[in-house]
Amino acid sequence: MRNILTIARKELKTYFTSPIAYIVLAIGGVIFGFFFYSALAFFVQRGMEMEMYGRGTPMNVNEYVVRPLLLNLSVISLFLVPMITMRLYAEEKRSGTIELLLTSPVRDLELVLGKLLAAFLLFGGLLLVALINLSLLFFFGNADWKPLLAGLLGLALLGTAFLSLGMLLSTFTSNQIVAGSLTFGLFLMLWVADWVSSYSGTTVGQVASYISVTTHIENFAKGVIDLRDVVYYLSVIFLGVFLTHRSLESLRWRS
Fold it and tell me: How many domains does the chain have?
């Protein structure tokens, strides 16, 4: 455990001594802030219109503000996670420090988990920025905190799954741009895989719907924690960590 924390601390320091962490947090904060303002403005405007004309039931802040924002944050992750993971191993290979890592008295699994932990902590900064914005709804509105916690749990699982896959792809190349492009391409395919089910009711359509990340994040955004969705994300995380571990083993043998 000590080695994992040491590696995570080193990686996190590297993030913040380079522009990556600041760019990711700034871009994520600005985009989410815009989404938050737009959703809240729409909610207030519609609420005033309904009150003025005396029609309809009271609008629910979780349904009209919190849920769309959580889904928007998952879209933001689609673009920002590749920026977090693209350098994890590609930069080590480019600079030649990968040999030092592979010959150090640290097990490959500890190295994988340490880097994953550092990447998740940076991703957690995005969730913290979102939570700061959403906390305003509790001071000035009547938002329900339980669906929000369920949504944040889903985003944490989604983010970790993305991070584990991005980390894997980073072991395949020494070019950060290539690693980031491959990661974004994979994420985009996982995002739109559910489209197949709209025109194919066969087994292929069902499988495509299951492997799509959008199918599983929607329940969390609604405040529903389904064991099948949790198992899906944990399976992806395990697969990403396992394959990254195997990839490092192959690098060790080649070196």
Answer: 1
Q: How many CA atoms lie within 13 A of 218 on its CB side?
A: 8
Compute how many other C-beta atoms are within 10 angstroms of the C-beta atom of residue 127: 18
CA 71/CA 210 separation, integer angstroms:
18
Contact assessment for residue 94 and residue 174, using Cβ atoms and an 8 Å cutoff: yes
Query: What is the Cα Rg of the chain in Å?
Result: 20
Q: Is-contact 221 64, C-beta < 8 A? A: no
Reduce the DSSP state of residue 216 to 3 states and report it: helix
Find, among 204, 154, 162, 207, the residue nearest to 182 by Cα.
Answer: 162
Q: Give whole-number Cα distances, 132 to 55, 76, 121, 129, in Å.
A: 33, 16, 16, 5
Predicted confidence (pLDDT) per residue in 138-178, tens digit: 777 677 788 888 989 999 999 999 999 999 999 888 888 99
The 3-state secondary structure of 75-103 reads: HHHHHHHHHHHCCCCHHHHHHCCHHHHHH
Displacement of CA 248 from its chain's centroid (Å): 23
Query: DSSP letter string over 179-201?
Result: HHHHHHHHHHHHHHGGGHHHH--
Q: In which domain, by residue range, is 192 found?
A: 2-254
Residue 30 has pLDDT above 90, yes or no: yes
